[in-house]
Specification:
Helices cover 26% and strands 26% of the residues. A hairpin with a 6-residue loop joins strand 32 (463-467) and strand 33 (474-478). Strands 3, 4, 5, 8, 9, 11, 12, 13, 15, 16 and 17 form an eleven-stranded antiparallel beta sheet that branches. The protein has a six-stranded mixed beta sheet with strand order 28-32-33-31-30-29.
Length: 707
């Protein structure tokens, strides 16, 4: 049995109320709905006897047993599950006594499940059976009932339930517990040549009666159906309604797949998710609802041809969200309704066919490019990105004009080339040509575009638009004139004063802090490094390249087996456990601060000697030995020592002991404030009996330290 989300067996893999418990003591193992008798579908069982002289006075056993209900299967598309429910029986004993077993199905009302009224029926089995549906274990509050004919000569040997040998009655809606009870007060056993009657709630059309069942005793009936009968349970999500059209989606909204919609529950508060018509799959997971091929289904399953009609005069063609049945060439009408008729006589057909052949080749030439552009558009996530705000989708022709036919290459990296471009208002832009987006990378690419389109901050590179009509997508960014911090520090060796370094550090931290806290969901950059911090003409930093960032529900981490980011900047905790958090960005930013202080590029080695050497020098108060030799002023050296202390707090092995980006931003901002104070004050701060970390954490003025 396949267990599909929102159901699951492991913590974090199911929505509240949808846990499935596997019991391996059975062979083969069995699945049960819920984590315990109190958390899922259960059955209450009592047995006992009563006298037909006083049927309202029953003698029950000492206890009522409670057993979990075995899960039969799950259908997320129908928003239902099936569980095995046992049968209730009433059998003749030694006169005047009856022996009974009664089983009541129960699901917690506060949970997601209800007993389906549309998919279940009350069924009684036996001659002259009197089956009753009740919520009481003692039958005191009957809801509905049914009777069958008493004469065995009047019924067939087997067949669907039709009132002869068995009877059926509808199940009322909105029930979370119910019991089927058989034959209370019955006195005519000998007349019917049977000594037991049975009753159960069972899935419609599932049960076919037989004379064997009609004349069975309790033991043989239970042996024939050892696991019981399927009962259908409807489920809903949560206790809220569907969001109104145009309103933001609430946190925890379960309809995650495109091509799906939210449907209000009918019998209780809550909702379910449904794939659109002509789509099928799991609407509770991203990409779960996929287009169905109606034409292929017609061929494979002839019984579906009435559901998806296409006459012999038509040609069935699948498309997204449906299918077409166009009349064949030379015919007119509607292939779906079967009205395709001849349009022309034979000579006209020949002439039309010749003209159509010529037109076909012309059409191939004219439309081939459009078909290819459409394929690229869909492949690169166009249907998803079309509705994203804040970005513009350009055509292929427009991009050639913007980049002057891709003549000026200004950069090249892991994710492709970058070209210089200009918009109609002559403002310069950077055009990034990504690597090819195959179907496995499609979601990653669209996630990147969506994330970047939401970022609006002075210290984050702004995404302006994209083009999807090529085999590799193109992205348009604001142009940042100086290039990356890595280029400025290590390639061009520009003059970078201590004040400028502090400005770059604070601005970069502010941009990352904004990413970590913006919107309903937080973001991890995942690849923080000096090459991804760009500088404008005034050395204002702008964080760029979210190629490895992913949306993160607030307060949760993501575990991955794939290495992301630059190995020289990678968090050792991620390398060990595969867990990426915002504190991973903090660690990487700590290495960027080392580069700003030492002007030595980060290197990767398994021993992390680059980081260890710097941290040890800071603790030993020898960090001045590693500071960029171009920095000679004692005041500037003291400021860089303070930045070093902040870097060390970013690089702590335990992520819980690291600063968060907002704290990093505040500490660096305080250091800028320190740089504006008289030199004697800075020297006094540096001469305290304290470590460099204590000096960095000391808030300037009379403010309290930041924890």
């Amino acid at each position: 049995m396949r267990i599909a989300y929102p159901f699951g067996t492991k913590v974090g893999c199911f929505l509240p109320g949808f846990q499935v418990t596997c019991n391996s003591t059975f062979l083969p193992p069995c699945a049960f709905l819920g984590s315990s008798f109190l958390g899922g579908a259960i059955q209450h069982i009592i047995s006992g006897n009563y006298s037909i002289d006083d049927p309202d006075t029953i003698q029950a056993d000492d206890r009522m047993d409670t057993t979990p209900m075995e899960l039969m299967d799950i259908s997320v598309s129908l928003a239902e599950v099936r569980v095995f429910g046992a049968v209730s029986s009433d059998c003749q004993g030694k006169q005047p006594y009856h022996f009974y077993i009664r089983r009541r199905t129960y699901v917690p009302y506060e949970g997601p499940f209800l007993i389906s009224a549309s998919r279940n029926v009350l069924t009684g089995v036996g001659l002259n059976v009197d089956a009753v549906l009740t919520t009481s274990m003692y039958g005191s509050d009957s809801l509905v009932g049914c009777n069958s004919v008493p004469n065995s000569k009047a019924i067939a040997k087997e067949g669907p339930c039709n009132g002869q040998g068995c009877c059926e009655a509808a199940v009322p809606p909105g029930l979370n517990f119910v019991m089927a009870m058989a034959d209370k007060k019955r006195t005519d056993w000998r007349k019917t040549n049977a000594n037991c009657s049975f009753a159960m709630v069972v899935q419609k059309t599932w049960y076919n009666y037989s004379l064997e069942d009609v004349h069975a005793d309790e033991a043989s009936f239970s042996k024939k159906y050892p696991r019981g009968f399927p009962i259908v349970l409807d489920f809903t999500i949560g206790n809220s309604s569907c969001p109104a059209q145009g309103q933001p989606l609430p946190q925890g909204y379960a309809c995650l797949s495109g091509n799906s919609s939210c449907v209000e529950a009918t019998n209780r508060t809550g909702y379910v998710c449904k794939c659109w018509e002509h789509y099928d799959g799991n609407p509770y997971i991203p990409g779960g609802c996929q287009d169905i091929n109606e034409c292929a289904l017609r061929e494979r399953y002839p019984e579906l041809r009435d559901q998806y009609p296409c006459s012999s005069g038509g040609i069935c063609k699948n498309r997204l969200g449906g299918y077409d049945c166009l009349c064949k060439t030379g015919m007119k009408g509607d292939g779906k309704t079967g009205t395709c008729t001849e349009k022309f006589p034979l000579p006209a057909k020949l002439a039309t066919g010749f003209a159509a052949l010529i037109a076909f080749f012309v059409l191939i030439v004219l439309t081939y490019q459009q078909i290819k552009l459409k394929r690229f558009y869909d492949q690169n996530g166009g249907p998803v990105l079309k509705g994203v705000k804040n970005i513009r989708i350009y055509t292929r022709r427009q991009f050639k004009q913007i980049t002057n036919n891709y003549q000026d290459v200004i950069g090249e990296g892991q994710f492709g080339k970058v070209y210089m471009g200009a918009l109609k208002d002559e403002s310069k832009v950077a055009v990034k040509k990504s690597i090819k987006v195959d179907k496995d990378m499609k979601k990653e690419f669209t996630d990147e575009v969506i994330i970047q389109s939401q970022m609006r901050h002075k210290n984050i590179v702004r995404l302006l638009g994209c083009s999807l009509q090529m085999d590799v997508p193109l992205l348009v960014y604001e142009f940042v004139v100086r290039g990356s911090l890595y280029d400025v520090l290590f390639k061009h060796r520009d003059i970078v004063t201590v004040d400028t370094r502090l400005k770059i550090a604070v601005g970069s931290a502010e941009g990352l802090a904004y990413m970590h806290s913006a919107g309903e969901s937080t973001i991890r950059h995942g690849d923080v490094k000096s090459a991804n911090i760009l500088l404008d003409q005034y050395f204002t930093p702008k964080v760029s390249d979210f190629g490895t960032s992913k949306l993160l529900a607030r307060g949760k981490d993501e575990k991955t087996e794939h290495v992301i980011g630059d190995m020289s900047y990678i968090d050792p905790v991620y390398m060990q456990y595969g867990t990426v958090t915002q504190k991973s960005d903090v660690y990487s930013f700590g290495i960027v601060l080392i580069e700003l202080v030492t002007r030595t590029p980060a290197t990767y080695d398994e021993g992390r000697s680059y980081v260890a050497k710097f941290v040890q020098a800071t603790h030993d108060k020898r960090v001045s030995e590693l500071i960029d030799k171009d920095i000679t002023s004692q005041i500037d050296i003291k400021l860089m020592e303070m930045v070093s202390a902040v870097a060390v707090d970013c690089l702590k092995p335990n992520p819980n002991e690291r600063l968060d980006m907002r704290q990093v931003e505040q500490l660096l901002d305080n250091i800028i404030g320190q740089s504006a104070q008289p030199a004697q004050d800075i020297n006094n701060q540096g001469n305290l009996n304290s470590t460099p970390a204590d000096v960095a954490l000391l808030t300037l003025g009379n403010e309290a330290p930041i924890n």
